[in-house]
Design goal:
Blueprint: H1 25-28, H2 54-57, E1 69-74, H3 106-110, E2 115-117, E3 123-125, E4 133-134, E5 140-144, H4 158-171, E6 179-186, E7 189-194, H5 200-205, H6 214-228, H7 233-248, H8 258-264, H9 287-305, H10 309-316, H11 321-324, E8 332-338, E9 341-346, E10 359-364, H12 370-374, E11 379-384, H13 387-395, E12 398-403, E13 409-414, H14 425-434, H15 437-445, E14 449-451, H16 475-484, E15 488-489, E16 495-497, E17 500-501, E18 503-509, H17 514-526, E19 532-538, H18 540-548, E20 563-568, H19 577-580, H20 604-613, H21 619-636, E21 639-645, E22 647-652, E23 655-657, E24 676-678
Parallel strand pairs: 1-10, 1-11, 18-19, 18-20
Antiparallel strand pairs: 2-3, 4-5, 5-7, 6-7, 8-9, 9-10, 11-22, 12-22, 13-20, 13-21, 14-21, 15-16, 16-17, 23-24
Helix pairs in contact: 4-10, 7-9, 9-10, 14-16, 15-17, 20-21
Length: 683
């Protein structure tokens, strides 16, 4: 029996293209860590492998003008939709989410994958010795490995790659894209057998799977089995059920089993730091945040005890010593971890050469960036969340990276299915002309939203910078479009066609503030164009039910929606959910009720461009096709793209790279932390 186990709290967001699993960043970051207590490694660097180059073999020695440590701050009381203290990769090297998120955290520098993302999220070779190449029939992708070692000195081999992908497939509930099989060709060559030609396997899957040392994982599993042999799966499952029931009660009961669970977790190989579960209060431990995570690990251990083979390894993986003392092939190796510091040291045998700064530390810090100003923290990512704070940081001598599209974007989506009101492109264009989009976005977001003009975020390798901006508000032109489509003003000023009135509801998640406000503004302004558009606010579960069940009825009705304001995440490859939500191949219907294209938009030009993009492995050609698709979407208006919420990274001016200043305009500006340096005594 196969045990597809995902980490507690993690749920994959389903992709735009068929059964592909594109894990969205925010969903992946909800995972909590797990692992056995850390035994610190010796502080001296391991002996380099004979395969390491002479330049890489030298112990990194910082320049006298540079500090020997780069310090990254995190905050357990962050107002982000995830808690950085419990991210996979901060407390353990948890698999199952997406590895290469645009953050510097331990997992990203301890591990390496076959590919990694550059500053524009283009996939470039890492452990792969040059591009991975499609073979004759283009459904086999061959990767040749660089000659390098893991942190324990053992060589990275094709067997390790194959094992990592098979294990990842189990842990992530099948998220390995179109991979049907992975074959070892020789010690440094591996073939990925795909079910079809799939260029997104290179851009999405190859950067996402950390390469693990098979021998170390199997040894850690054997140790875990020996440690847990006195425990029973049924007892653990029963305990997890009881905890979940207590937490779900009203009011929740969270501390009843706290001490018993705290004593049990080390027996499972799990360590949770209470300092990571503060419930938004830096002074108070929150059992109601801690116990759901603990319950998830207890249930995971129960699953592992009832499984065998790779299923059992996958189920128990987060509890292994290799999750808390990970062994990778990245530029840094873990030395020690504690509640107040994760300490890493440059790995001298790294295939790209030793990191420029010897130590990399992760420490808790203050939300107000005082530690940055004081110099005890060098980089604080995704924490300054408003423009005033960003300006204040700059006035204090800090540098600020403004991240556009990092948190996705908000749009007004039309139901463009035949027979629905906005199947007529002229009505879609008329509604767009009826609203004063720049002023509305500014008013709805309080000045914190940046207008977007398409589904691909700025700076992405396939972003189209020439997209036209929406036209200025012009109610006269809007009325001409409406009347040209056969509508006539009614006695109340609202257009009609036969017995049909030009009216619709905007489904929006209630209590969202900015989206609620935007729906109201649209309703108010479209009255001037003879449209009766009203907001229909509902709760999140009902929104998900509407989007996931064809024919997508407005909640508590039997009428399909016409308009919906929602937020959408962005993928590293725009062929995923960014553009895929408009492909006819992803249309939802009775057979595929949860298809990504729930709005029913269908356009032969977009479909042709999509088909051509998915038929080539040439990334430059795909970028060109994706840009053309964005132009066609701008012309057909299947949605009115509204805004992205800006987020900010802050860093001391003393931080730069061995090549010169950091490019903070790149969306993934921190993609090479191994090349970062800190000027000693600098601001």
């Amino acid at each position: 029996m196969r045990a597809n186990v995902v980490p507690p709290g993690w749920r994959p967001m389903r992709p735009a293209l068929g059964a592909r699993g594109v894990a969205v960043i925010v969903a992946a970051l909800l995972t909590a860590g797990c692992g056995s207590p850390v035994t610190p490694s010796p502080t001296g660097a391991p002996t380099p492998s004979p395969t390491a180059s002479p330049a890489a073999a030298a112990t990194p020695s910082p320049s006298p003008a540079r500090a020997d440590t780069l310090t990254i701050g995190w905050a357990c009381t962050s107002t982000l939709p995830f808690n950085p203290c419990t991210l996979p990769g901060y407390r353990n090297a948890a698999l199952g989410g997406t590895m290469p998120v645009p953050l510097i955290y331990p997992e990203n520098v301890v591990y390496s994958a076959l590919y990694r993302y550059d500053g524009t999220f283009a996939a470039v070779p890492d452990l792969a010795d040059g591009p991975c190449l499609p073979q004759a029939d283009r459904t086999v992708i061959r990767c040749r490995l660089v000659a390098t070692t893991f942190h324990d000195g053992t060589p990275v081999t094709a067997d390790d790659v194959a094992y990592s992908y098979r294990l990842y497939h189990q842990i992530s509930a099948g998220w390995t894209g179109s991979m049907a099989e992975v074959r070892v060709v020789d010690p440094r060559t591996v073939d990925f057998v795909l079910t079809a030609v799939d260029p997104m396997f290179l851009t999405v899957n190859l950067p996402a799977v950390p390469i693990l040392p098979q021998h170390a994982v199997e040894a850690a599993y054997a140790d875990w089995v020996a440690t847990t042999k006195v425990l029973k799966a049924a007892d653990l499952a029963k305990l997890a059920d009881a905890i979940d029931e207590e937490i779900a009660s009203d009011p929740p009961v969270c501390a009843l089993r706290l001490e018993a669970v705290t004593a049990l977790l080390p027996k499972l190989g799990v360590r949770l730091y209470r300092e990571d579960y503060l419930g938004g209060n830096p002074e108070a431990f929150s059992p109601c945040d801690y116990m759901p995570v603990a319950s998830g690990f207890i249930r995971q251990a129960a699953t592992a005890l009832g499984a065998t083979g790779l299923d059992a390894v996958a189920a128990a993986y987060q509890c292994f010593s290799t999750s808390w003392q990970p062994i990778g092939a990245g530029p840094y190796r873990l030395v020690s971890a504690a509640a107040n510091r994760v300490h890493l040291e440059a790995w001298p045998g790294h295939h790209g050469g030793a990191a420029a700064t010897r130590y990399l530390d992760f420490v808790p810090t203050d939300l107000d960036a005082a530690d940055l100003v004081g110099g005890s923290v060098d980089i604080f990512q995704q924490t300054i969340l408003n423009q005033d704070a960003a300006k204040s940081a700059i006035s204090e001598g800090l540098r600020v990276a403004t991240l556009q599209g990092d948190s996705g974007y908000v749009s007004l989506k039309f139901n463009a299915r035949p027979g629905r009101l906005f199947a007529d492109v002229n009505l879609r264009k008329a509604l767009q002309l009826c609203i004063d989009l720049p002023r509305d976005v500014d008013a709805a977001t309080g000045g914190t939203g940046l207008m977007v003009y398409g589904p691909v975020p700025p700076g992405n390798w396939a972003y189209n910078p020439t997209l036209p901006k929406p036209p200025a508000r012009d109610t006269t032109a809007a009325r001409k479009l409406i009347e040209g489509a056969g509508w006539r003003p009614g006695t109340d000023g609202i257009y009609t066609k036969g017995k049909v009135r030009l009216e619709a509801q905007i489904v929006v998640r209630g209590n969202t503030g900015d989206r609620d406000h935007m729906a109201d503004l649209i309703g108010l302004q479209t009255l001037d164009c003879g449209m009766d558009i009203r907001s229909f606010a509902t709760d999140l579960p009902k929104v998900w039910e509407m989007l996931g069940q064809y024919p997508h009825y407005i909640p508590d009705t039997k009428t399909p929606f016409d308009l919906y304001i929602g937020q959408y995440g962005s993928d590293f490859d725009p062929g995923g959910s960014d553009l895929g939500q408009f492909f006819s191949s992803n249309l939802s219907d009775a057979t595929h009720p949860d298809g990504a294209n729930f709005s029913g938009f269908s356009d032969p030009v977009v479909d042709r461009l999509a088909a051509e993009a998915m038929a080539t492995y040439d990334q430059d050609e795909r970028a060109s096709l994706y840009r053309q698709a964005q132009q066609e979407l701008a012309a057909q208006v299947p949605a009115i793209f509204l805004w992205t919420s800006l987020s900010y990274d802050a860093l001391r001016s003393a931080v730069s790279t061995v090549d010169g200043p950091l490019d903070l305009t790149a969306p993934n500006w921190s993609w090479q932390p191994e090349r970062m340096v800190v000027a000693a005594g600098g601001p």
